[in-house]
Amino acid sequence: MLGGAAAALIGLLFVAMSLHLDHIMKNGVFRWRARNNLLYLLTLLVISSLILIPQPVALLGAELIAINAFWSRNALVPLYKRFVRRNDLGGLSVRRAFVYTGIYCCGALGGALLIYRPGIGMYVVAAAYLAFLSVIILNAWEIMLGAWNADAKKSSKSER
User: Fold this and answer.
1) What residues have CB less than 8 Å from 96, skipping those under 6 apart?
2) CB 47 within 8 A of CB 129
3) What is the DSSP letter of 90?
4) How far apart are CA 7 and CA 85, in angstroms?
5) DSSP 8-class letter at 84
6) Tally of helices (H runs) and strands (E runs) in the chain
7) Closest CA to 140 of 36, 7, 21
8) For an engineered disulfide with 113, which of 14, 74, 92, 121 has Cβ 3.0 to 4.6 Å away?
9) Distances from the Cα of 125 to the Cα of 2, 106, 146, angstroms
10) What is the helix (H) or strand (E) element at residue 27, kind and residue range?
């Protein structure tokens, strides 16, 4: 289910981004969020594929730990580079970074539990990725609202 939802949302996000490409490319925050949404949805698609591949549960757990560790780094490193080095977040959200990192930690925990207690581990993995999908959808909604606001401002200026 998560893989199908992620694949469908990747297609919809491409269409929505192409319709509002000028606003997304002009705004660094929207550009960053759109890029990350695509990467996160692709990650969900890959993880869903790994879950469906017949393999030992312990190997799946190790794969989930590795993928989640890698992507949690992707959520925190840009914050470190921007904030610690330059004292400027440049539109990056600390709250979002910690939410994504928390979800990745839950996914890694689920992977570890798959190795030691497979019955419980898959529930933790499923809960983490359902939460992840929900956050991605909310993030995409905020991008579209921002593009709509930019359109509204543009049309009100042209009416004057």
Assistant:
1) 75, 135, 139
2) yes
3) T
4) 36
5) I
6) 7, 0
7) 36
8) 121
9) 11, 7, 32
10) none
Going by pLDDT thresholds of 50, 70 and 90, the confidence category of residue 158 is low
**Total number of domains in the chain:** 1
Domain containing residue 129: 2-159
111/60 Cα distance (integer angstroms): 7
pLDDT tens digits, residue range 59-116? 999 999 999 998 887 777 776 666 666 655 555 667 777 888 888 899 999 999 999 9
Token pair for residue 124? 């933790």
d(CA 84, CA 75): 15
Count the Cβ atoms, other than its own, within 10 Å of residue 18.
Answer: 9
Helix ranges restricted to H, 20-81: 21-26, 28-52, 57-79
* Region for residue 93 given its phi and psi (left: phi exceeds 0; alpha: psi -120 to 50; beta: otherwise): beta
DSSP state of 3: H
